[in-house]
Design a protein that fits this description.
Elements lengths: L12 E3 L11 E3 H7 L11 H11 L4 H8 L3 H29 L2 E5 L8 H12 L7 H12 L3 E2 L2 E2 L3 E5 L5 E5 L3
Antiparallel strand pairs: 1-2, 3-6, 4-5, 6-7
Helix pairs in contact: 1-2, 2-4, 3-4
GO molecular function: DNA binding
Keywords: DNA-binding
Organism: Halogeometricum salsisoli
């Protein structure tokens, strides 16, 4: 990433015809969007530039328009956006890991298990912990299968999973490290 992409130079306003929040001049106000959403560069995994590019892209502003405003290339804006999206995904993964780790209910589903056995395992563990899970058995199986990806094929659990249930009853499914 270039040094110019790390600082907050520029006024944050970009002209666009896209459906986006605009200021009185008809410009997209990147700084205003970041302020409204509570962006804090001191606590974020994103740089200010990454946050600006991502905020504008999510509002439909083209990379070429952003590049023109920032005085850089569209390829550089693409790189900044890609890095921002990777950082967001890593942050989501970290939160999911932390929630699964601290969930009051943790059920290990062993490799080779039948997916149809998972709801009973989860419901029994939730009953023991006094946690209410808000999923029907079919919904729970679908949620586990969807989150597990290729770790579940048909009814077979092909890789060990950790099913965490938060105090709010939300499921956090983690594939065990191999």
């Amino acid at each position: 990433m270039h040094d110019a992409d790390r600082d907050g130079e520029g006024d944050g306003n970009i002209d666009t015809d896209a459906d986006a929040e605009t200021n009185a001049d008809g410009d997209v106000d990147a700084a205003g969007v970041l302020g409204e959403t509570g962006f804090d560069p001191e606590t974020s995994v994103l740089t200010r530039r990454q946050a600006e590019v991502l905020a504008l892209r999510e509002r439909g502003v083209r990379q070429s328009t952003i590049a023109e405003h920032l005085g850089t290339s569209r390829a550089n804006v693409s790189s900044v956006e890609s890095s921002a999206r990777r950082n967001v995904e890593k942050a989501r993964e970290t939160v999911a890991f932390a929630e699964a780790l601290t969930a009051p209910v943790q059920v290990v589903v062993e490799e080779g298990s039948d997916l149809y056995d998972v709801p009973k395992l989860v419901y029994d563990a939730c009953d023991e912990a006094g946690v209410k899970v808000g999923h029907t058995a079919p919904d729970l199986m679908k949620t586990v299968a969807d989150a597990a990806g290729d770790a579940v094929r048909g009814r077979e659990v092909r890789s060990s999973l950790l099913v965490g249930v938060t105090t709010e009853g939300n499921l956090r499914i983690r594939r065990s490290a191999e």
